[in-house]
Specification:
Blueprint lengths: L8 E4 L3 E6 L2 E6 L4 E5 L1 H12 L3 H11 L4 H17 L3 E4 L4
Antiparallel strand pairs: 1-5, 2-3, 3-4
Helix pairs in contact: 1-2
């Protein structure tokens, strides 16, 4: 996936509020007033991003929790993070070395 790599750091916007509803998470962008819903796997990604901004560590943790190939998981994570960034729910920054 072009543009975002697992080496990135992902920061959740302070203009986003979230609420867990059963196994899902509902996000509200306070600037736009638009709600976004995350299913169970997306909700887990969101929870892990709240704990750790390192996308690599989030990926590694999810890889141990889900029965999925590493390539598929990486593609899914990067796709979702790109979507979250597009909706101004997160900021993605390249990891400095």
């Amino acid at each position: 996936m072009a543009g975002i790599a697992l080496t990135a750091r992902v920061t959740i916007s302070d203009r986003v509020v979230h609420q867990r509803v059963d196994e899902e998470v509902v996000l509200l962008n306070l600037d736009t007033g638009v709600y976004h819903g995350l299913g169970p796997t997306g909700a887990r990604l969101w929870e892990l991003l709240l704990e750790d901004e390192s996308l690599q560590r989030v990926f590694e943790r999810m890889l141990t929790e889900y029965d999925v190939g590493a390539g598929q998981l990486q593609d899914d994570i990067l796709r979702l993070v790109q979507e979250l960034e597009t909706h101004n729910l997160v900021t993605v920054a390249a990891q400095s070395t």
